[in-house]
Each structure stands twice: as structure tokens, then as C-alpha cells.
Amino acid sequence: MSIEKIAESLVSQALYYQATDIHVVPRSTDYLVQFRIHGILTSHKKIPIQMGERIISHLKFLASMDIGEKRKPQSGSLQSYFSGILTSLRISTLPTAKAKESIVIRILHHKKILSQQKLSLFPNSMRMLQSFMKQAHGLVLFTGPTGSGKSTSMFTLADYCSKQLNRRVISLEDPVEQQNDHFVQVQVNEKAGMSFHNGLKAVLRHDPDVILIGEIRDAETAFIAIRAAMTGHLVLSTMHTRDAKGALYRFLEFGVKHHDLQQTLLAITSQRLVKLRCPFCGFECSKYCIRSQTMKRTGIYELLHGQFLQAAIEELKGGDIISLSLSLPKLIAKGVALGYISEVEYEKWIVDEKNIDKRSRTVFY
């Protein structure tokens, strides 16, 4: 079998198992291929060193990376059909101490947008987020760690704005993660002069109702998001923080003023993807489960909005410390008590010194 077919087969197998990442890790005598399936890293197979190096070189070539450079980390992307499915791959290489490269392939599925009902374990959270999509202007921020479903939530709600509310949506992304035919997507390209700053000016002249900014990762992007919200547009974006209040402190680090936050922020949501109890396997669900094509994970959302959001901004100035009635620990504990998720998920996501037995006997309403 040619190296092209072997690489295509590897990606096709990852798609079959609904993997989000492929890891090809060099070892002393071989390469280990691992799939991240529903958040869990599982070993897939071992391949000979020569085959592993050829696969890495082939993928680097497809992603327009320098196949001769093995001493520096590189990144690239490609889009192709695997098993008849249009799929985007984001590829990252890293030189290791074994004089071999490690490669990680992030799989971005071009699949149908999820329905709002499937996004959240508790429907009221999604109804609240949908209500914010009807606002004329302001900033709605989705926060959480990598792999918590921030982009999926944001794109699903943007699709809702476009199709259900008939609003014009334009996205500004680096890179474009999920292609969608229902709104205009702009790829940031610094080399071609399309920076976030220049892109926003162009987007504002294109008569948008909703502006989607892929991620707020630095001060420039933070000011761009605030400025867009101030100009009378609804802005959706993501940020990496531990909880909803943490996003406010990140804005202060970027130099955003308190009054700008009060004028623009509509809501901040912090979310986690949690594994659901399988009706066949229980909490230890196998990747070979007959339920493999149905949803195995769903989101839990901590929402900071309204008077709680304003009180949190006042807390930044030295005001009273507030606590949310429906915080992430309480919402995940509720899912545990109702039997939807395991206590292992609570321990995975929540840092809590309380006794597990006490948590499991407590129901939060």
C-alpha cells in the first residue's frame, strides 16, 4: 500500500471513531499512533519507524510545510475528502530529543451544525443564550479550557442568528475552523495584510448584524472586540479562562477599562464538555459501543449576566465578592446527583476540597 493510502486510511479510521486528534509519537523502536476520542487519549496501533517518518513527511507536504526542516516546530493546515467526508486538518510538528518529529493532527469536521437542544445538559442554559442572540449590540463571550466546546457553541448560535433570526453574520477567524455556507467567513492573513485590525474595518463596512471573532488571545483582539460591540453590533468570541469571572480579569490585563466592560458585555459563559452515562456500558463506555454514532458528551454552562455580571465588574474595583447561584461546581454536581454523569467527571473539572460523599448526596435546584 502506498504511503498516500496509509495516511488517508489513518485519518479515515480516526473519523470512524469520531476522534478529534491524531497523535503520532516517536519511540526508540517505532511510532505510536494515538486517537483522542471523546476527550480520552487511546492507543491505536504501532507503526515502523520508516513508515512513521514517511507519513509525517507526506502530511507536511500536503499542508505546505517544509519537509526538509526537522529541527524547528512547524504548523500548517489542509482540507480534503476522507471516506467521502470533507475534513480540515490542522497539523503541528515538534522536534524531539530522539532526533525524530512528533506530529499532532487536529480534525475539524465539516458536519452539520448541532441543534441547540443537544448542546446543553440543562435546556434553560441554551434558552438563555438564544435570548442574547436577539440583542442588537453587545459582547457575548464563551470561555473554558481547550476542547470544552466553545467554538461549537459559538458557531451553533451564529448559525441560529443567520437562519432563524435572519441576521447577517460575518466571522473574522485565524484560522477558519468550521466552514458554514450561511454566513461570510474571513480568514486573517498577516502576510497578505489582512490583520485583525484591517479585517475588522473591512467587516464593519460590509453591513453586519453579528460579528464573530474566533478568539480573543491578546490586547489587540480584545480592543477589536470591544470596539465592534460599541459600534452597534452583536459580537461573539471565545477566550481561554477557568471560569466566567476569570474573563473579566483577562480583559483588565489587556488594558480594557471597567466602563468599557460595563457598556459592552452582555454575558460570559464558562463551559465544560462532560461524558454522559451510556445506557449500555454505564460510565465506562467503550469506543466500540453500538451507541457510537450518538452523542456521548454534552455541555454544562455557567452563565454570568445581568446584575451578577455588573456586580462582578464592581468586584474588580474592590466591591463585594459575589458567588453565582448556578456555578459550574453546582451544575456538574446536579448532573452527578441526577445520574447523568459520573463523579469522575466532577473530579476532572472541579477543584474542590469537599468530601465526594457529601457532594454525591447533595442535589442543587
TrEMBL record:
| Originating species | Lederbergia galactosidilytica
Q: Which family does it belong to?
A: Belongs to the GSP E family.
Show the SUPFAM superfamilies listed in the entry. P-loop containing nucleoside triphosphate hydrolases
Q: Is the keyword Nucleotide-binding in the record?
A: yes
Pfam families from the xrefs? T2SSE (PF00437)
The protein's matches in InterPro entries, at most eight in alphabetical order, are given as: ATPase_ComGA (IPR047667), P-loop_NTPase (IPR027417), T2SS/T4SS_dom (IPR001482)
* This protein's GO CC annotations: plasma membrane
CDD domains associated with the record: PulE-GspE-like
Taking every annotated instance into account, which residue ranges of this chain make up the domain Bacterial type II secretion system protein E? 204-218
Task: Give an example GO molecular function.
Answer: ATP hydrolysis activity
Q: PROSITE patterns from the xrefs?
A: T2SP_E (PS00662)
Q: What is this protein called?
A: Competence protein ComG
Protein keywords: ATP-binding, Nucleotide-binding
